[in-house]
Amino acid sequence: MFISALRRFAFAYGAAFAFFYVVARARGLALFTVYPAQGIVLLGTHRSRDVADPVLDFLAPEMYWYGWSASAAIGALAIGLVAALLPDRLCWLWALCAWLVPSMAIIACVHLTMPWFRL
Amino acid sequence: MATTLLILHGLVAVALIGAITHQTLAICARPSGKPLSFFGRFRAVPGAGFTNAIVVLYLISTLLGAVVYLYFKIDVQPILERDRHWHALGFFDLKEDFAAIGLGILPAYWFGWRQPVGSHCRQMRIALTLLLAFIVWWSFLIGHVTNNIRGFGW
């Protein structure tokens, strides 16, 4: 019983993590922003160019990847817990989503990265 | 410090790429015909035996990569931007994204390999293994190219 709930959690977590990661990436929803040069971590999404001249951006490069991953992990945790509470007969659906959603997320990430290749 | 971590990251990645390639070939190309050939022996391994090692190596590699990424952002990315290596930066962005998605599917991958063979999860097991193998290979190659970008003449 516990193992099957854990399995549903794992399958749903994988699918939801990929989905929420793409949403966080596309919408800029980082749980926190890291400024490695200053050794600062700020809650939420912050852009140094919003408060300083864009040409000085290189002095305080910001990092969102950690924040996007954390946002996705929290969203996925919630979906995973819901899936764990649902009946086991839906396990085939979670198993399908566990690989289908991440595959689509990979394609979405390629799409989101396209601006780099147009420079 | 950064160089030591990068070398360690690379060594863990080599071990990971070996394990995931063994497992992927074992699940996709079942042993037949010439068991004594190099390819035959390479794929004739019990795939399930690699699962725990792959999960642990992936976690260690991602952790090391996440630390090295801080140095990359400060010391390397400005140089790549100055030299207009936009494609390299784009490919590296994809490496970050794929690595994060791979981290998310690890629990499902682990459970997929714990299922008895022949269950409805077989399709998922194959798909997740292929997906993880793609992510590991992509991350390895892009990391390697970025690390040696001045020698590539891009």
What does this structure look like?
Chain A is mainly alpha-helical. Chain A is 66% helix and 7% strand. Chain A has one domain (2-117). Chain A has a two-stranded antiparallel ribbon. Chain B is mostly helical and 154 residues long. In chain B, 78% of the residues lie in helices and 0% in strands. In chain B, helix 1 packs across helix 3 (51-82), helix 3 packs antiparallel against helix 4 (86-114) and helix 4 (86-114) packs antiparallel against helix 5 (122-147). The interface between A and B is large, with 45 and 39 residues.
SS content category of chain B: mainly alpha
CATH topology of chain B: the name is: Four Helix Bundle (Hemerythrin (Met), subunit A)
Q: What is the string of helix and strand elements of chain B?
A: HHHHH
The major beta sheet of chain B can be summarized as: none
Q: Which sequence of strands runs across the widest sheet of chain A? A: 1-2
Count of helix runs of chain A: 4
Low-confidence stretches of chain A: none
Fraction of residues in H or I helices of chain B: over 70%
Number of spatially distinct domains of chain B: 1
N-to-C CA distance of chain A? 53 Å
Largest interface, chains and sizes: A-B, 45 and 39 residues
Summarize the structure.
The complex is a heterodimer of chains A (119) and B (154). By secondary structure, chain A is mainly alpha-helical.
Please outline the helices and strands.
The complex is a heterodimer of chains A (about 120) and B (about 150).
Chain A: H1 2-27, E1 32-35, E2 40-43, H2 48-51, H3 65-85, H4 91-117
Antiparallel strand pairs in A: 1-2
Helix pairs in contact in A: 1-3, 1-4
Chain B: H1 2-28, H2 38-43, H3 51-82, H4 86-114, H5 122-147
Helix pairs in contact in B: 1-3, 1-5, 3-4, 4-5
